[in-house]
Amino acid sequence: LTEIDRCHWLHPVVALQQHERRGATIWDSADGIHLTDVNGHRVQDAFSGLWCVNVGYGQQSVIEAAQAQMRKLPYATGYFHFASEPAIRLAGRLVSHAPKGLTRVLFGQGGSDAVDTAIRCVRYFFNATGRPDKKHFIGLQRGYHGSSAAGSGLTALPLFHRYFDVPSPQQHHIPSPNPYRHADGPDDAAVLASTVRALESKVAELGADNVAAFICEPIQGSGGVIIPPKGFLAAMRKTCDTLGILLIVDEVITGFGRTGPMFACAAEGVRPDVLTLAKGLTAGYAPMSATLISEELYQGIAEGGCDGTAFGHGQTYGGHPVSAAIANAVLDLYTDGGLLTNGERVGQHFEAKLKELEELPCVGEVRIRGMLAAVELVADKKTKAKPDATLRMGQRVLEHAFENGLVFRAFNDDILGFAPSLNYTEADIDVLVDRVRASISHVFS
Ligand code: PMP
């Protein structure tokens, strides 16, 4: 098969367009932190696949756990009164790492359905407890919460809204807490205060009795790695409590050591009512998500009876035993295997080294927490003017870096995003940053 034939079968429209633009990359194999395509071109992965392969490729313990589970019990439904040992064990372990009070786990396949599950749990809860009008959801501009029919409306990227009548009349967005581009300047307290005010006034406009929940990522990933001011989650928790609405924290990207600790919300001492997890849960070795809900929500759903009907929710592959066995092996790597500790240590080196790029005239800001980072490119450092979009600077940096052995992502052509796996060494970080610097310098020269 030629490359174009393969793409045709894979994904006719998108892949072919990509192929015509710059040639599709068809991956063939992976090891450690490297990917190799079908033409034998080997690159260092600076994005953990799609922010998910947090443990790196080829981890033997994960592969063996999957093989053993496939032999023993390849499938068991998580529906009805059935379960499997690896899924039960995993649920207990997730609860033990999550903020205290998140006691119930609903498993799914990926981040999008985790967000759908969160929405459905919240709606069930309010219906079951006699508050059916509480059905409005508020998210942040630049937020990403998946591409499912419900979640795509909470996602604030217009590309995901076209033709699907989302955001629905019950889905709203308030400005993102983005210190670098905030109108009042990069003053943390001012940015935080304006986000709190925006949430308060949106709830006042809709009526608190009609608002179910506020949803946010601890750090906005797909929106361009926007790091909010310190204390953001705590401020949102407090505001939601005051307003009488629930807090959903979407840690699909930030979970599992991406920002340092296992979960960002737990590290910041914030207990959401619902926590969505995916990606690093199985580190890309299998599809899986988990939605953790509070005991209060669970009791409301279970005992409220939802007009006497059961909670009609779940999927064939929810709690899949092979995915669960993989997730258990991946969790072992984070904890006993030392990957969380390694990520935190190497993350400090990453921060010091990547920050040096701020000396380049075309770099407006370097944002980084742990192993999650972005470099924002500008045409003018003082005015923070964005580079001319028609010049596709981000794509060109990406393309140059790819040719020179490094893969990562660009957002809107002005933000370069990085999410190296937690098994990176300091020397691997040096290669990453040196190649990024060389590619930026080449493209902006
Ligand atoms: N929530 C967040 C914060 C995400 O970053 C993503 C994916 N990038 C999703 C939800 C959706 O996850 P998935 O692509 O696995 O459906």
TrEMBL record:
What GO MF terms are annotated? transaminase activity
Keywords (alphabetical) are: Aminotransferase, Pyridoxal phosphate, Transferase
Q: Where are the transmembrane segments?
A: none
Q: Which Pfam families match?
A: Aminotran_3
Q: Which cofactor does it need?
A: pyridoxal 5'-phosphate
Q: Which InterPro entries match?
A: Aminotrans_3, Aminotrans_3_PPA_site, PyrdxlP-dep_Trfase, PyrdxlP-dep_Trfase_major, PyrdxlP-dep_Trfase_small
Q: Which residues form the signal peptide?
A: none
So what family is this one in?
Belongs to the class-III pyridoxal-phosphate-dependent aminotransferase family.
The cross-references to PANTHER family, in alphabetical order and at most eight, read: AMINOTRANSFERASE, AMINOTRANSFERASE CLASS-III
- Annotated protein name in UniProt: Aminotransferase class III-fold pyridoxal phosphate-dependent enzyme
